[in-house]
Model the fold of this input.
Amino acid sequence: MIKKTNLADSLKKASEPEKVITAKTSQPEQPQPEAKSEVPPSRVGKKAIAGHFDPAVGKQLRQLALDNDTTVQALLEEALNDLFLKYGKSPIA
Done:
């Protein structure tokens, strides 16, 4: 018979930081946190904007990008600028 493990205990154990013993000091050390990845230059000073839509919306948007040899990003910029103009705002996207 297979022994069932307690999920809560497994999660607690998995979330605890590992202790590393070095040969020099024989003292436990905390692992170094992973360095954050660099932000691509095209995203510096930018803010992500998101929404929740039907999956068909995403599929149709990607298809429009393919059909027009452009990117989803460019289509969203165009759509936002059109929306801003419609409401009397400057097209800044």
